[in-house]
Design a protein that fits this description.
about 325 residues, alpha/beta, DHBP synthase, Rossmann fold, 2 domains, four-stranded parallel beta sheet, 9 helices, about 30% helix, binds threonylcarbamoyladenylate, binds magnesium ion
Length: about 325
């Protein structure tokens, strides 16, 4: 096991082998916090059935406690113990789990998940991640794991161990190292209103793919019908100011391009070939890199609003939103 010294203590890095997984799971069972790789982003994991561990997650992230957490489990069978599935929810879970889909469903009676994890709501957001290491870790923990993205609240989500360590060093017990996250944006969050699916957050499963299984999905517009407390207007924010749909680069700006248009002015290109999957996987790394290079202004070129482009543009709009205005837009 490798250790990285920090100002505030020592961050343990748990290797992706049997011993590493067991040691990290043991920390979880003791009520400590472990960041772990999923296929979307790194999660900041804690025992969801332990009120103190859940409170520690909010504390470590500086996250407002009205913003509920996603519960991670290793199988659909275990998810059924915690939430009530409708036939449509069951179909979506069968099709997309393990994978980048989070379902918001009614808690079952006797569900052991801390009420703090769901911010007092009578629903739970739940998913089975599509990452072999995450599944082995969840199985070893042998309890539901609450895991928001492993970054300080409002900041850029982490897709590498290095991102997690630079944001949370000294605040958590360690990181289970699964390398870089393949998808790179968070899961798609789907709730239900009077039985019909509602897109609460675009993410790793595209709307098009979702609808191919569920039929038409309503896009949540903040009309109060299905609460999505976490959709803060300012989020995913780098230190730098962000300008969107930029077709030129102003003096002092760093430029993030997509495709061949504007590549000649790019400091970083998310995908020269215009591949949205590649772009999603590099988005947060590009924003972290700009911060590390101390740019104070970032311009981002246009990105098509289809497929994974929807999730990319959603994150970029929040990264560009006024910072003094971290208000809830979809409540
Ligand atoms: O890919 C992901 O989803 C990652 C990885 C670690 O699994 N997790 C993640 O968690 O992005 P977080 O906490 O950063 O985002 C959870 C989102 C928030 O927008 C939150 O408000 C919403 O899910 N959410 C959680 N519980 C909810 C509920 N009961 N009803 C409605 N929205 C809920
Ligand atoms: Mg997050």
């Amino acid at each position: 096991m490798v250790s990285m010294k920090s100002d505030t203590g020592t961050m343990r890095i748990f290797k992706a082998d049997k011993n590493g997984i067991q040691a990290a799971a043991e920390k979880i069972r003791q009520g400590e916090l472990i960041a772990f790789a999923t296929e979307t982003v790194y999660g900041l994991g804690g025992d969801a059935s332990n009120d103190r561990a859940v409170a520690a997650i909010y504390e470590a992230k500086g996250r407002p406690s009205f913003n509920p957490l996603i519960i991670h489990v290793p199988s659909l069978a275990i998810a059924r113990e915690y939430v009530e599935f409708t036939p449509l929810a069951e179909r979506l879970a069968q099709k997309f789990w393990p994978g980048a889909l989070t379902l918001v469903l009614p808690r079952r009676k006797g569900c052991p998940v801390s009420l703090l994890a769901s911010a007092g709501l009578d629903t739970l957001a739940i998913r089975v991640p599509g990452h072999r290491l995450a599944l082995e870790f969840l199985t070893a923990c042998d309890r539901p794991i609450a895991a928001p993205s492993a970054n300080p609240s409002g900041g850029i989500s982490p897709t590498t161990v290095h991102h997690v360590a630079s944001g949370l060093e000294g605040r958590i017990a360690g990181i289970l190292d699964g390398g870089s996250c393949a998808i790179g944006v968070e899961s798609t969050v789907v709730g239900f209103h009077e039985g019909s699916p509602v897109l609460l957050r675009p993410g790793g499963i595209s709307l098009e793919l979702l609808e191919s299984c569920s039929g038409p999905v309503r896009i949540h517009q903040g009309d109060g019908s299905t609460p999505s407390p976490g959709m803060l207007q300012s989020h995913y924010a780098p230190n730098a100011a962000v300008r969107l749909n930029a077709t030129s680069k102003m003096p002092g700006e760093a430029y993030i391009a997509f495709g061949r248009d504007y590549d000649q002015i790019a400091d970083v290109n998310l995908s020269l070939t215009g591949d949205l999957t590649e772009a999603a996987s590099l988005l947060f790394s590009a924003l972290h890199l700009m911060d590390e290079m101390n740019f104070s202004r970032i311009a981002v070129g246009p990105i098509p609003d289809i497929g994974l482009g929807r999730a990319i543009n959603d994150r970029l709009r929040r990264a560009a939103a006024p910072r003094d205005n971290r208000q809830v837009v979809n409540q």
